[in-house]
Amino acid sequence: MSTYTLPSQVQVLPATPQLKGLMTIIRSRDTPRADFIFYADRVIRLLVEEGLNHLPVMSKTVETPTGAKYEGLDFEGRICGVSIMRAGEAMEQGLRECCRSVRIGKILIQRDEETHQPKLFYAKLPKDIDSRYVLLLDPMLATGGSAMQAVQVLLDNNVREDRIIFLNLIASKEGIDAFVERFPKIKIVAGEIDEDLNEAKYIIPGVGDFGCRYFGTD
Ligand code: URA
Q1: Which of 13, 174, 7, 112 is closest to 21 using CA atoms?
Q2: pLDDT(113) > 90
Q3: 169, 140 in Cβ contact below 8 A?
Q4: How far apart are the first and last CA of the chain?
Q5: Distance in Å, CA 149 to ligand 1 centroid
Q6: β-strands 69-75, 78-85: how paired?
Q7: How much distance in Å is there from the Cα of 139 to the middle of ligand 1?
Q8: pLDDT reported for residue 42
């Protein structure tokens, strides 16, 4: 058995029976699209809720209807989402459900036909992104190539590296290692970690092509 030490920057969702059941549905090749969307959305919601735990907080005391005090907390710092198109767009709704009227930027990176390297095609980001915490959205962390390029775009727009929280449903060990080596201050929150990549750089066992299954394209 291989021993793999998960970098401390990576937090994996607790492997509860709920999560395992959801993952079993979305990983099955026999799952119809409507179910894939429904159950992927449930995992996305868990990821967003966990990602929000990495935002700074300050203490806040409120009075309850009983007249007693409750020592609670309040979130400090503003956030925005940035989805890596196209699959990352599937995670936008889950973020909106947790953070009403959240600003969401988009980055499109595709492999250059000639160099085979990931290339930036489009980026539209909130103007004040440099003062925000960024929840970076991409369901699959495979080689990490596009994700690293997307982070570079954020850094070029003066986002602080330690203010980026990267959310994915499934991350490969190879992708995690490459990503963490280049951007050690970024926190990754992943649903599950998978062992391998195949020759076409799909995650194994993975879910196949997430974007095609979610958006119904081939
Ligand atoms: N993107 C996908 O949709 N699936 C993978 O396995 C890897 C990247």
Answers
A1: 13
A2: no
A3: yes
A4: 36
A5: 16
A6: unpaired
A7: 8
A8: 98
User: Do 194 and 171 meet the contact criterion of CB atoms below 8 Å apart?
Assistant: yes
CA distance linking residue 143 with residue 69, whole number of Å: 50
Structure tokens at 22: 């959801």
Closest listed residue to residue 78, CA positions, set 195, 188, 159: 159
How many angstroms separate the Cα of 16 from the Cα of each of 12, 19, 43, 46, 190? 11, 5, 12, 12, 14
Residue whose CA is at the smallest distance from ligand 1 atom 2: 209
DSSP 8-state code for residue 47: H
Alpha-carbon span 18 to 35, nearest angstrom? 15
Strand ranges for 112-218 from DSSP E: 118-124, 132-137, 140-141, 164-172, 187-194, 196-197, 203-204
Residue 69 has pLDDT above 80, yes or no: yes
Count other C-beta atoms under 10 Å from residue 174's C-beta: 18
As a whole-number percent, the residues of the chain with pLDDT over 90 amount to: 92
Structural domains of the chain sorted by starting position, each given as residue range(s) with its CATH number in brackets: 44-215 (3.40.50.2020)
Q: For residues 86 and 69, what is the distance between their CA atoms, to the nearest angstrom? A: 46
Q: Is the CB of 40 under 6 A from ligand 1?
A: no
Q: Give tens-digit pLDDT for 33-53.
A: 999 999 999 999 999 999 999
Does the predicted model carry a pTM greater than 0.90? yes
C-beta of residue 94 within 8 angstroms of C-beta of residue 39: no
Per-residue pLDDT band at 3 (split at 50, 70, 90): confident
- Is 210 near ligand 1, meaning CB less than 6 Å away? yes
Residue type, 65: P
